[in-house]
User: Which sequence fits this backbone?
């Protein structure tokens, strides 16, 4: 009886162990099957994958949802005889059909065969992005650049294409991967700073901009971007400081007078604001935002202040389509406007 129980116990443990293994295999299989389905609709509807034009199936038909199955079957049947361009088109359709492994390895093979071709690389980046494999995308592009000894100027067409196609998030994703590569650092940091500034992610923008300034304290683009960050974040004292730093850049003082004056104005230091405004070159004064700041600084210091000095610059912006009447924009230049301003004083 003891022996029977022992044997039965061993058999039970073996059955339980086999069942456990089977359960794990089923679970892993279900996960692997479910992975592409998670992004099925995104892949099917995505319009940013790129097809090559070819004589077999025109692009107008390849993008037609009603012909999807017909086109996919046609390309799969002729797969062994497809040329480079048709293989790319097949891998796009396979991606849209959820066949991710074949599509990923297919694009990678095309890139390896012709590294300078843009379309398969752009499609691989898109596929990684849609299925949320961001770090995989960064790692692949880093390896691609290192393996092919690709210089920044040679890789810029890819980044430019992403920009032109409004694939801005993909571009930022790739730039984050490039930011540690020799020769790519400053460019990547600068572009990422601009991207995160546009996204109003001030913390991330400042992180990259400060990395630039730690190496190049008078990098004009980084200083301007930091000034814009301070402008958006209402960090007025820092805005003045960055404006003054820009003002020290030889032959590159653009926007500096506005940033300095704006920082002083927002802190109630109107005489300092006016002083820097008056130092600005005429090219900077002939700008609506600059004129508004100039006018507001003068009137904040003294509502009776004359705005006559702004008139010639107002005429310039008016000639460019600015439609606010002069009597409204420069109130103290008219008797009625002066009466209104006197009312504020009283």
Assistant:
């Amino acid at each position: 009886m003891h022996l029977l129980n022992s044997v039965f116990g061993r058999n039970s443990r073996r059955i339980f162990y086999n069942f456990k293994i089977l359960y794990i295999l089923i679970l892993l299989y279900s996960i692997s099957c479910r992975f592409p389905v998670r992004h099925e609709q995104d892949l099917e509807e995505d319009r940013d994958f790129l097809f090559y034009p070819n004589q077999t199936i025109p692009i107008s038909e390849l993008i037609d949802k009603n012909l999807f199955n017909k086109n996919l079957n046609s390309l799969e049947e002729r797969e062994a005889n497809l040329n480079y361009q048709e293989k790319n088109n097949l891998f796009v359709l396979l991606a849209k059909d959820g066949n991710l492994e074949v599509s990923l390895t297919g694009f990678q093979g095309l890139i390896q065969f012709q590294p300078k071709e843009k379309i398969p690389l752009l499609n691989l980046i898109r596929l990684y992005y849609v299925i949320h494999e961001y770090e995989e995308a960064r790692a692949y592009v880093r390896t691609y650049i290192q393996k092919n000894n690709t210089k920044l100027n040679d890789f810029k067409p890819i980044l430019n294409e992403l920009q032109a196609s409004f694939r801005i998030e993909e571009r930022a994703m790739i730039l984050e991967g490039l930011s540690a590569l020799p020769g790519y650092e400053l460019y990547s940091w600068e572009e990422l700073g601009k991207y995160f500034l546009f996204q109003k992610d001030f913390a991330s923008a400042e992180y990259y901009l400060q990395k630039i300034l730690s190496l190049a304290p008078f990098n004009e683009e980084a200083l301007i971007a930091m000034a814009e960050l301070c402008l958006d974040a209402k960090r007025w004292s820092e805005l003045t400081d960055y404006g003054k730093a820009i003002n020290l850049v030889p032959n590159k003082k653009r926007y500096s007078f506005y940033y300095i004056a704006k920082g002083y104005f927002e802190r109630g230091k109107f005489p300092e604001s006016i002083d820097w405004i008056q130092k600005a070159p005429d090219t900077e004064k002939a700008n609506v935002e600059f004129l508004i700041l100039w006018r507001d600084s003068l009137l904040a210091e003294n509502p009776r202040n004359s705005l006559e000095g702004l008139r010639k610059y107002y005429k310039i912006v008016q000639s460019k389509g600015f439609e606010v009447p002069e009597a409204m924009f420069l109130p103290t230049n008219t008797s009625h406007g002066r009466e209104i301003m006197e009312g504020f004083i009283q």
Observations:
- Residues 1-10, 19-37 have pLDDT under 50 and may be disordered.
- Residues 66 and 99 are 19 Å apart (CA to CA).
